Amino acid sequence: MSNSYGGGGGGGYSRTSYGAGGAEDGGGFMYGGSQGGSQSAGKGYSDESLRPVTIKQIIDAHQAYPEAPFRIDDIEVSQVTFVGMVRAISPQTTNTTFKLDDGTGMLEVKQWLDVDKQDDSKPSFALDQYVRVWGRLKSFNNNRHVGAHVIKPVTDFNEVNYHLLEATYVHLFFTKGAPGAAGGDAGGDGDSMFVDGGYGGGADGGGASEDKLRNISAKGKKFYHWLFNANGGNEGLNVHVISQGTGMSIQDVLAASEELISPGLIYTTVDDDTFAILDN
Amino acid sequence: MDPVSTPRISGQLIDSYVGRNVMVVGKVLQLRGDTAVIDSEGQITANLNREAHLVSGNGVQIIGKVLPDLSIKVMNSIDLGTNVDYAVSQTVVELTHQYKDLFMFPDDTRMN
Lengths: 280, 112
Fold this sequence. Notes:
By secondary structure, chain A is of the alpha+beta class. Chain A has helices at about 1-5, 10-20, 55-60, 160-175, 220-230, 240-245, 250-260, and strands at about 50, 60-65, 70, 75, 80-90, 95-100, 105-110, 130-140, 145-155, 235-240, 265-270, 275. In chain A, a hairpin with a 2-residue loop joins strand 8 (about 130-140) and strand 9 (about 145-155). By secondary structure, chain B is an alpha/beta fold. Chain B has a single domain, classed as CATH 2.40.50.140. A 5-stranded mixed barrel of chain B has the order 2-3-4-6-5. The longest helix of chain B is centred in the C-terminal third of the chain and has 13 residues, at about 85-100. Chains A and B meet through helix 3, strand 7, strand 9 and helix 4 of A and strand 5, strand 6, helix 1 and helix 2 of B.
């Protein structure tokens, strides 16, 4: 019995299943594509990953221009999940509009009616009941709402608190990096005093591929991951292309590039404004 | 849409929220007519509305206004049953105040 598990090389079991596909690619959580290299430039699935949020985060999400993708913590986001109490239900001809309140804010959620399905099965919700929504962030005539794929009642109140913790966790993941990657707030921007200190010593487990980015700021990571997926080849990509692709300002891109050059993660190619990933 | 929050607080924090609408999760200790005593890191007196259906010993979530005497005028309450992890609730209260950006719109009447 124990042979069948133990014989297989112990911990290797779970590690291969993750590590093999992920390659250098951020471990799959934020940059969902496991085959980073094969994706066409800048059109990853990262913005399609489902993010747990508070309603206030949705209200605060900004768009660079009308119709632009929403960003939370400067990360593109479209699919979200959140909880809230039902404060209003108004049936329309094409959809049912709910007003949900999670204590952080109030938001409209629309559930479109499926004309093909004669739905008697549609669950109805009571006022003030907690529900969980999975849906897509939308803006229509400057009126922000979520188009719900699924709305389900929350049957265990602890899920509400759990969700708020998870939303906080993901927020911190994006703003301060993965746990273990930074000892507290220490992972400051461009701390290039310890050029080699960042990687190599990564003994505390957790995505080895992230190790070399451990001292890099969120913007630097974004730059690196985008460039990695963009397939710029040996010639690299110009700062303007990177700025467009990542949605970061030129200034941010240049700051991030300096941060990535000093530890040798990227290098300049044809001129000082063109960067490529330094493979190792 | 509506930039209004009802911050999650506990008995420890209630005195800095006088005049504001807040949310409290706690355990019903006492039920007497239209007032209830709720334990949430300290005891809070809640003045109930007609619709309130609290059960002594159960968890409850109330939303209401903090009055000057530090009681809460309840506008909305939900009975949470017995399966409530109060420790997690208190963690959420702490996070609410640690990461206000995620949980709380600033209030006009008072800062902080």
